[in-house]
Design a protein that fits this description.
The protein is of the alpha/beta class. The chain folds into 2 domains: 141 residues, Rossmann fold, CATH 3.40.50.1970; 30 residues. It contains 6 helices and 6 strands; from the N terminus they run E-E-H-E-H-E-H-E-H-E-H-H. Strands 1-3-2-4-5-6 form a 6-stranded mixed sheet, sandwiched between helices. Helix 1 packs parallel to helix 5 and helix 5 crosses helix 6. The N and C termini lie far apart (58 Å). Bound molecules: 5-O-phosphono-beta-D-ribofuranose.
Length: 174
């Protein structure tokens, strides 16, 4: 399967998943990347089921111009670490709840990397996927004023939303 590109522009963030069953969670990441107009792709590969495909992807990503890799995987989730071991690009891991232990397996497999091979690990599930994309946006914003401005607006809107919710609560009480 070829990577699904969202735009003709060169890909900046690659969103990788261990299985198509991870898509409902990883969509939270692509929604944010779309909102921030960050060119991205979706790529399916498994550390265990397709090790050679994973190696080819990891070793080729930087050459294709990819700047950041977001990786979602569940179960004994070695995908983010295996990719991080074969590229110098920043790798952001999203543990996915895919088994009877509700993502704890994936969280520990993703976060407990040996020294030398960093994976920036987010929360389990949808919040983690969303934050992975926001974290990527924060990294890119260091050298991109447009993304920095969009982040400022996003953060201000979140604060306003909390104030609106407070107003709604106050209305209910009186
Ligand atoms: C992992 O195993 C995938 O990332 C997925 O979260 C989990 C289950 O995969 P499927 O059996 O649904 O394909 O490799």
């Amino acid at each position: 399967m070829k990577a699904k590109n969202t735009a003709q522009k060169s890909i900046v963030v690659s969103v990788v998943m261990g299985s198509d069953s991870d898509l409902p969670v990883m969509t939270e990441a692509t929604k944010i990347l779309e909102e921030f107009a960050i060119p991205h792709e979706l790529f399916l590969t498994s550390a265990h089921r397709t090790p050679e495909r994973t190696t080819k992807f990891a070793q080729g990503a930087a050459k294709r111009g990819v700047k950041i890799i977001i990786v979602g995987a569940g179960a004994a989730a070695h995908l983010a670490g295996v990719i991080a071991s074969q590229t110098q690009l920043p790798v952001i891991g999203v543990p996915i709840d895919a088994t009877a232990v509700h993502g704890l397996d994936a969280l520990l497999s993703t976060v407990q990397m040996p020294g030398g091979i960093p994976v920036a690990t987010m929360a389990i599930g949808k919040a983690g996927a969303k934050n992975a994309a926001l974290y990527a946006a924060r990294i890119l914003a260091l050298a991109n004023n447009k993304i920095a401005a969009r982040l400022t607006v996003y953060i201000q809107k979140m604060a306003k939303d909390v104030e609106k919710k407070q107003e709604n609560l106050s209305c209910r009480k009186s």
